[in-house]
């Protein structure tokens, strides 16, 4: 199965970089990376030491509803874009030993029974398993320590 990883959309990133309000109605916070665990949700790479980045509340859903979680995300303060991630490869910014994976249906509701903490080396196989299930249209990848959203995986076929 070919899987596509979807980062934060460019329009949202541009809005935040231009001082627009985040999903909580606040301006993004500006920080300088210490080089330790600052994954950019746009280019799906780590923000390097000394580089400026933004912290913003983001809801990666098309509408608000009971399952539309809002949480903190990081993004480079400057323009950056995601490059293609070859099939069978995880985005570069996934460096932790494990992540929460959770399946969502076409209406962006959680598909119960799909969530779990998965070791990094088992993520690809679990995503394929989840995306093969009837009703699962996307898989969200979140931090297992802080529940922060990282990216969405969908079938690329």
TrEMBL record:
InterPro entries associated with the record: DUF1203
Pfam families (UniProt xref): DUF1203
Sequence ranges of Polar residues compositional bias: 11-27
Entry protein name: DUF1203 domain-containing protein
Region (Disordered): 1-33
């Amino acid at each position: 199965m070919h899987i596509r990883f979807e980062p934060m959309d460019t329009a949202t990133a541009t809005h935040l970089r231009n001082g627009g309000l985040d999903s909580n109605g606040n301006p993004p916070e500006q920080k300088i990376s210490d080089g330790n665990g600052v994954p950019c949700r746009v280019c799906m790479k780590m923000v390097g030491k000394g580089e400026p980045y933004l912290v913003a509340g983001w809801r990666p859903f098309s509408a608000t509803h009971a399952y539309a979680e809002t949480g903190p995300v990081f993004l480079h303060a400057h323009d950056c874009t995601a490059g293609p991630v070859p099939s069978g490869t995880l985005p570069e910014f996934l460096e932790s030993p494990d992540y929460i994976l959770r399946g969502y249906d076409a209406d962006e509701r959680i598909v119960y029974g799909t969530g779990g903490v998965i070791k990094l080396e088992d993520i690809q196989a679990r995503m394929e398993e989840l995306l093969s299930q009837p009703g699962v249209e996307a898989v969200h990848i979140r931090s297992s320590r802080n529940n922060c959203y990282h990216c969405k995986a969908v079938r690329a076929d």
